[in-house]
């Protein structure tokens, strides 16, 4: 049962991060390889707000709003200029952005392992979730937040007019623009939402386990989860996260813990060979890369 | 009758190298239906696309000239602003969102019309194209060619346009469907007081619908006049209606041949 609980927690982490990859790719067809770094920046934003206030009910929402704003600014100041350029140029730009952010984080926050939970007075306790299975209270919150985020995203994309416009822009940006949709507004919104969800994941992980640059690795490991499911499918991101997390936990348990960082990328390679568009993705969407 | 759209000396290039339009000038009066005729590659579609605006992915830009709509300069503006000014394009291909339902295709529009006006226009579309009303929940990608054209016209109508640009209304459609669509379009035009600028390969359809027409070749306008004048022009008949003895050649070729004959 403990294994099942561990798989659920790890898949929730990957799912909360991978929805950002999927949203940006689905709407703007850009593979954002800086998503791990942006997630880490979200966690450091919490560290920053925690230095101003010890009230988590203020520090966390302010950090979340800052991450939303920063996501929109990344698009408006940088990625917007990639419109009309090759897909490769856009991907290389996100890689460069990621490297830049890593450097800036070290300059402003140092490379030391830090604990945002300490100034905020947050203590994670152990909670029994299944018979014979315990997880930390922050892990439980992460699982609940992931469920809420996915429910909200599904409802937003299916039922709201802005969600409908995002789906339209993803299918045919030119026609969307000709139907009166401001593409740059839509893209800025989707970058903001992606950075927000990634940052929430980064904040919750760092509150539970502390914060340093190794957080990027978790962000990178969520990318295979997104690709296994299909880069343009939110449902695929959920299932892909479950598959990658299950494989990782089981191999750590029964084979070798050192495989933890290797397994997701092994699955990624197998998937790229067998079915590059993922379990729930569309072949046409991948052809456009 | 006032002039609604004026295009003057319009130059467009693709990828900063390929010149597609070389000084197109035309005007459309309010309430008129105007057609643009021409062979493949003459610049008809590019003219409509330039009026409706380019996005970055097009790799195209207006390098010279002006597009004035009801006194407002629109050249180089993004498509969403142009749509909100009251110009809606029905493109030649990729004209609907295939993974959205029929109703979502009408709902997705972001225009100058408010909620009540949008609902009225959607009702108008369903009234004129009852087939769409019966298929509201069907994915647009599963529609037939004729139904797609109706939906494309419908979603342009929900944009609350004053000027509708239609690229190849009849292309790939059975004559009976074209007939149905043309009749509904005429009726919608009367209901909404629409002005229409259409590009049409079929000169027969164009002359039937339009009051005036422009003939384009090699990126420029080479002839214009009322539909009646152009339809009786022997060179136009030869080039676009295929009814003359000289077969289907370009207008310019025919005009040059005629000049030579006259000089001889």
Jot down its keywords.
heterodimer, A: 289 residues, mainly alpha, two-stranded antiparallel ribbon, 13 helices, 2 strands, 74% helix, B: 264 residues, alpha/beta, Rossmann fold, six-stranded mixed β-sheet, four-stranded antiparallel β-sheet, 10 strands, BCAA_Transport_ATP-bd_LivF (chain B), nucleotide-binding (chain B), transport (chain B), ATP hydrolysis activity (chain B)
Name the average pLDDT of chain B: 87
Q: What share of residues are in beta strands of chain B? A: 25-35%
Assess the beta-strand content of chain A as a share of residues: under 5%
Q: Would you report the number of β strands of chain B?
A: 10
Task: Provide a descriptive summary of the structure in words.
The complex is a heterodimer of chains A (about 290) and B (about 260). Chain A has helices at about 1-30, 35-50, 55-75, 85-110, 115-120, 135-160, 160-170, 175-180, 185-210, 215-230, 235-255, 265-275, 285; strands spanning about 125-130, 135. By secondary structure, chain A is mainly alpha-helical. The longest helix of chain A is centred in the first third of the chain and has 27 residues, at about 1-30. Chain A has a two-stranded antiparallel ribbon with strand order 1-2. In chain A, strand 1 and strand 2 (about 135) form a beta hairpin. The N and C termini of chain A lie far apart (about 40 Å). Chain B has two domains: about 5-230, Rossmann fold; about 235-265, no CATH class. In chain B, a hairpin with a 2-residue loop joins strand 4 and strand 5 (about 70-75). In chain B, helix 4 runs antiparallel to helix 6 (about 145-160) and helix 6 packs parallel to helix 7. The mean pLDDT of chain B is about 85. At the A-B interface, helix 7 and helix 8 of A face helix 2 of B. Chain A: Its main location: membrane. Chain A: It is a multi-pass membrane protein.
């Amino acid at each position: 049962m403990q294994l099942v609980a561990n798989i659920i927690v790890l898949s929730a982490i990957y799912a909360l991060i991978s929805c950002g990859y999927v949203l940006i790719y689905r709407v703007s067809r850009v593979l954002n390889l800086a998503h791990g770094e942006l997630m880490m920046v979200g966690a450091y934003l919490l560290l920053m707000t925690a230095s101003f206030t010890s009230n988590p009910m203020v520090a966390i929402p302010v950090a979340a709003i800052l991450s939303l704003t920063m996501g929109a600014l990344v698009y408006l100041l940088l990625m917007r200029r990639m419109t009309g350029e090759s897909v490769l140029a856009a991907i290389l730009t996100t890689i460069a952005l990621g490297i830049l952010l890593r450097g800036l984080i070290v300059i402003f926050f140092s490379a030391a392992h830090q604990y945002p939970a300490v100034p905020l007075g947050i203590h994670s306790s152990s909670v029994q979730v299944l018979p014979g299975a315990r997880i930390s209270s922050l892990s439980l919150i992460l699982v609940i937040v992931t469920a809420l985020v996915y429910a909200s995203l599904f409802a937003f994309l299916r039922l709201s007019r802005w969600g409908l416009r995002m789906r339209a822009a993803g299918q045919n940006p030119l026609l969307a623009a000709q139907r009166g949709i401001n593409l740059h507004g839509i893209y800025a919104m989707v970058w903001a939402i992606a950075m927000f969800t990634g940052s929430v994941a980064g904040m919750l992980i760092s509150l539970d386990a502390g914060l340093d640059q190794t957080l990027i690795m978790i962000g990178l490991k969520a990318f295979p989860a997104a690709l296994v499911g299909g880069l343009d499918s939110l449902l695929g991101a959920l299932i892909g996260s479950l598959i990658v997390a299950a494989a990782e936990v089981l191999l750590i348990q029964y084979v070798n813990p050192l495989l933890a960082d290797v397994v997701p990328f092994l699955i990624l390679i197998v998937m790229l060979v067998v079915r590059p568009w993922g379990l729930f993705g569309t072949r046409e969407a991948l052809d456009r890369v | 009758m006032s002039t609604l759209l004026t295009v003057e000396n319009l130059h467009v290039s693709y990828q900063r190298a390929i010149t597609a339009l070389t000084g197109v000038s035309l005007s459309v009066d309010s309430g008129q239906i105007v057609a643009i005729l021409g062979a493949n590659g003459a610049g008809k579609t590019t003219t409509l696309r330039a009026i409706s605006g380019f996005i970055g992915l097009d790799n195209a830009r207006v390098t010279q000239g002006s597009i004035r709509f009801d006194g407002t300069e629109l050249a180089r503006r993004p498509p969403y602003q142009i749509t909100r000014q009251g110009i809606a394009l029905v493109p030649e291909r990729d004209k609907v969102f295939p993974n959205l339902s029929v109703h979502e295709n009408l709902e997705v529009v972001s225009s100058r019309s408010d909620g009540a006006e949008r609902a009225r226009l959607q009702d108008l579309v369903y009234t004129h194209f009852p087939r769409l009303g019966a298929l509201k929940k069907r994915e647009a990608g599963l529609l037939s060619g004729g139904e797609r054209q109706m939906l494309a016209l419908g979603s342009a109508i929900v944009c609350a346009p004053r000027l509708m640009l239609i690229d190849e209304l009849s292309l790939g459609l059975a004559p009976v469907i074209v007939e149905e669509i043309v009749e509904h379009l005429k009726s919608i035009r009367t209901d909404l007081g629409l002005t229409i600028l259409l590009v049409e390969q079929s000169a027969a359809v164009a002359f039937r619908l339009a009051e005036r027409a422009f003939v384009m070749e090699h990126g420029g306008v080479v002839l214009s006049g009322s539909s009646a004048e152009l339809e009786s022009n022997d060179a136009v008949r030869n080039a676009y209606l295929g009814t003359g003895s000289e077969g289907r050649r370009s207008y310019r070729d025919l005009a040059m041949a005629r000049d030579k004959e006259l000089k001889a």
